Queue: 3 jobs
Job 1
Amino acid sequence: MSLKTENVQCLIIGSGPAGYTAAIYAARADLKPVMYTGIVPGGQLTQTTDVDNFPGYPNGVMGPEMMEDLRKQAERFGTDIRFGYVTSVDFLGTPHKIIVDESHTIYADTVIIATGATAKWLGLESEQKYNGFGVSACAVCDGFFFKGQDVAIVGAGDTAAEEATYLAKLCKTVHMLVRRDEFRASKAMQHRVLNTPNIIIHYNSDTKEILGNGKNVTAVKILNNVTGIETDIPIEGFFVAIGHTPNTEIFKGWLDMDETNYLITQPNSTKTNVEGVFACGDAQDKIFRQAITAAGTGCMAALEAERFLASRELQPEVIKNSEEV
């Protein structure tokens, strides 16, 4: 079996706001970056409808359109954008070895990881049917669209509690659906929720179905798992806040991660524990998880990659010629 091999100066794994911003900066620095988009080019925002909180779009923009704009900008400066999926890495030596689609070996002087994270869902068919049409996994992103309306949020941890109190400032009523008879959130976050008058807590409640009129969400059907009673709660928005999973599986054993597999970077930096490997966006950020903060860390990663290469006086040229092994 023959494998194609290639040497590159800067390899970007993953797209989305972090990856594309890193590509723009790396390309303008003449690092001739190569990007592999992953199985979802553009990341989570390609599955989002209106984006109203990204600077530069005064009238808002559709998520897929924004990602297309970022892709075109990265390409304009010379980024080599490829559809492909990184299947394994070897960070033992330098340059770093990366296998793409189990058939292409790349040796990269620097690697920028922008693989993002995936929201956890309940697994309901109706949840996906109305995703973007009343169902959301980000209250900060989409809460504004439900100003003055009734909404529900499912979750019991700190994130759910924080997003419930955020929604309570915008919405008429927030129904918080908690599966057990208690929160998992910290005492401080519980106190905030319990002292917010327009948050109604439904303990021992399982979400059975999200109801709608074919276009938008109109209610949520919940089941009290103690009494067995089903109830329909009229709402216009439904928020899922049961966590995210960072897309970092292939880096296990190579890069430092926290207990939930988010990549650990040095303070005020995108540097990982491996020299020449940088992480940006939601793969290393479990706090903010916004497009604009992801873009900011993408910029940081590209600048740090450029400085890393300059410090080692590496030649800026990318060896484009592939060879058969």
Job 2
Amino acid sequence: MEKLTARQRLLCLFDDGKFEEIGALIQQRHLLNKNKDFSGDGVITAYGTINGRKVFAFSQDSNFLGGTSGAEHCKKIARLIDLARENKCPIVGILDSGGARIQEGVLSIEYTALVARKWSEISGYIPNITLVCGACAGGSAYISSISDFNIIVENQGYIFLTGPKVIEKVLNEKVSFEELGGASVHSFLTGVSNQTATNDLDGITKIQQILSYLPQWCKGNLSYSDYPISKRDTLPVLNTFLPEEEKSAYDIKKIINYIIDADSFFEIHPDYATSMVVGFARMGNQPIGIIANNPFFMSGSIDYMGCKKAARFMEICDAYNIAIIFLADSPGILPGKDQEVAGILGSGGRYFQSQAVATNPKITLILRKLIGGSYGFMGPKMMGTDLNFAWPQAQIAVVGSDAALEIIFSKEIKNSKNPTKALAEKIEAYKQHFLNPYMAASQGFIDKVIMPDQTRITLLKALKSLQNKVVTKLDKRRNIGSMG
């Protein structure tokens, strides 16, 4: 499919291809009164409906001076942001811009800063989504990085602060657009893009899907209808789903798709930090967020990238009061020098804080194991989670049996008359006393141990019980985040 024009993208975005354009007669400053072919200064600003809901959107036009952002171009976008904020409606930015317009000097970079400030102000207030359809540098690149959701079109969209030509000129280093800021970089390595689209139309479809899970603004109601829970929500397949070998891998996405409403899972960051899965879904018609360990990758261990991914998704769900369900199965935090140097403390700290201050409904289900540091990352009671459940085979402990026996009973086992028998006895005793959910349940940290086939029914009831949750926050200016 060929690259669409700026106007075609908006026609595809809005219902029935209809929208109301504003600012169409605005011209670039030095063209005023000289050119009757009004350009709108390289950006189309408009409003219309998406699935019947009012949305504001702008689309940059790379056919006009490379889509660069001059003063009038930026003022149009800034005004559109104000309209979206004042009317409590989502806003979409379709980016295709070479950055600040050189010909306008300081005016260009000053008004680019205005757009960045206004885009930052709406963070967590109204949903904001960007779609990168071309080579975007400078201001447009920054907008994409601070959006709630950012989608990039593969082999067409690129995000970077300084382009390949500037890098070659300044550093004498040749680098391609793809290597510098393509989909492979930002979807797999940096996480700046939440989704990769195959073309413009696919990216627009993803925007429409994301909006379907979100309210109009942070205090708006989520759109869903009541759902009657019945025996049909029992899932016998889950009773035998987990591998018999407790260290065997399985894909958590299969469990997710069993317990949610059919075909409702929309994964966020599918290619980034794959041992952690986050995304939107529906349960009983209600939009929810899911944060899950995936034992299919690194046994479900939590690394610094997974912490960043989960923390940001938690913040988004909390901002728009979307309930979170944690699906926990992790052997712990991934150890090693690489993780420490990469900043596991900073990104882990941000994830802890995002959970601790979140006031949206939170539910945890421990499937197979939750060992050591991973316990704190996956919605424990003391992090403010409302309801915690576990399957009967769930293992909850500071360390696994092998490590525990090595630390606590190594001398006793070594000095016994029959070390093999002593080891087996200690393992069994450790499992009986620690590696099960009942110790946690006896202390009130697990609310209920449930059979796997009752998972969907239990979660549906939990979600219903928390629909009117209200928490009074501390009266303060803001949180101060970690370096993660």
Job 3
Amino acid sequence: MKLAFIDDYKFSVIEGDQVFDVSAAVSDLIALPPQKLLSTVITEWETRRGAFSAAVRSGQGRAFSAVRFRSPTPEPRTIDCMAVNYMEDGTRAEPAPINAFHKSPSAVIGDGDTMVLPDVPAIVFEGEAEMALVIGRVAKNVSAAEAMQYIFGYMNFIDGSARGLPPAGNTFFQTKSRETFAPMGPYIVTADEIPDPQALQVKLWVNGHLMQNYNTSDMAHKIPRCIEWISSIHTLYPGDVLALGTNHRGLNAFQDGDRVELETQGLGRLHINVSDPLKRTWSRETRLERADKKLEGLTPQLTGKYAKV
């Protein structure tokens, strides 16, 4: 099943190209904040899913264009993100040591929303195309062998990044947790609809140009290991989000006016806009294209505040 929040956070189900408002099926939860409603639905999924199916059968669907998709996890308690978790199409000799970072829940935006580039001296702003999972059960010290049982569903996720901020080495927090730097959605696809999450194609377009195109089979530390490791550090709860990393070779500079689209196979397509009040510009090239040209470092800024002339 595909689950979404639409308009003023009405709980909805997606069937084909139609959106069905099923909020009547959660009328007993209507006073709860959206994230708490979601986590309750996840916890009580087996007893509630039938009511959602019935609401779809008796309801009137609406076209995607007639609704506003909100983030399907509006205020997750925690967002964990795996770091350097791909083999980069065989260009890495071995997996990087398993690693992760927290991203602030205040960074969350949904489909059709805008990522705003802040007034900071970043070398470049990038957005990483990722698949994320949503936790379905309380998970503490979960073994890899049992980890897949703790997944409620999957969704698209963009990990916004402000690279190279001073001082050197002061990285993940100020790079990753900026407001609007965690687009996700447009909906959650329950795990039963994704037979093999380690064999999905992930594609990201910027202004219609395909920039990232990789498969989750290239993941260095597979999903069970990621859950095992994260849950050994802190407990995960229903509705928490774990983003699984990216293949960096297609990363490129996000800049003012960009229209970004992310589609992970089976998870729909997430659309966001990019706004930079400073109107800075960067070269339109991917990290792979820079490597092929034997260019070192990140894409340099061309114009605007903080450009090194």
